[in-house]
């Protein structure tokens, strides 16, 4: 039985559907802090900062895998630093303890390129870079990576993790990330609205299309235990682009689309992040390779967003 925590989130929404397809509706328990309208499948209201709440579900359903996808993201997280730290860490501790003390065999913990700070190689950032993140969200992911390695070393818990780049998808709206301009831009085009970008036109960031991000997650979790040599979190690369480049791919299809740039506090966060990622460990250990580039992502985004509107 699979438990997804944060099933209403940007990743959780899509991963839940994919896990239902893979394991069957009755074997997947989706959960979040608030209900999800017209959800198909098993759903539990769960505040994962409450240990008893997490353990109750793990015991009742005899959960064997947990995907912990609940967190306060980078930009939103800066509004209340100590609350962000508390939520991101307490939920992880509850997942790790409820897993160790019960039937859970595998745990997935999402990390992020937000773990990297100013003092790393910005191009093809190495897997074993020094981690001095600029945001509380990034700090909570660095701490989380060390805690999951600790639970693997001390208790033998099979916890696996990916440092996601900015994730772009049509299935869900993002919540408070620094890379979310690249999701919002597609919605603005289809609403015939001009787009004001909160990052500079030249801000290149590592990104990944939702289809690739979800496939990477499943492929990592399906890989033989012996192949996993990284027990903090795997670097993962999809593509890299800046606002000017994504606007160009869009203007090829929508010539009248207009973009203006009005950098805000999120520019400082983006400037502290890498421009591209070296994901050779993911390739070596579990054959990772992305399928989507900026053009094929843009085509797929519009095909699906327009279908949703029809
Ligand atoms: C954020 N979308 O912006 C998330 C992600 C790499 C970015 O961590 O916070």
From TrEMBL:
It comes from Gelidibacter maritimus. InterPro entries: Epimerase_deHydtase (IPR001509), NAD(P)-bd_dom_sf (IPR036291), NAD(P)_epim/dehydratase (IPR051225). GO terms for molecular function: L-threonine 3-dehydrogenase activity. Belongs to the NAD(P)-dependent epimerase/dehydratase family. Pfam families: Epimerase. SUPFAM superfamilies: NAD(P)-binding Rossmann-fold domains. This is NAD-dependent epimerase/dehydratase family protein. It comes from the Bacteria. Residues 2-235 form the NAD-dependent epimerase/dehydratase domain. One of its GO terms (biological process) is L-threonine catabolic process.
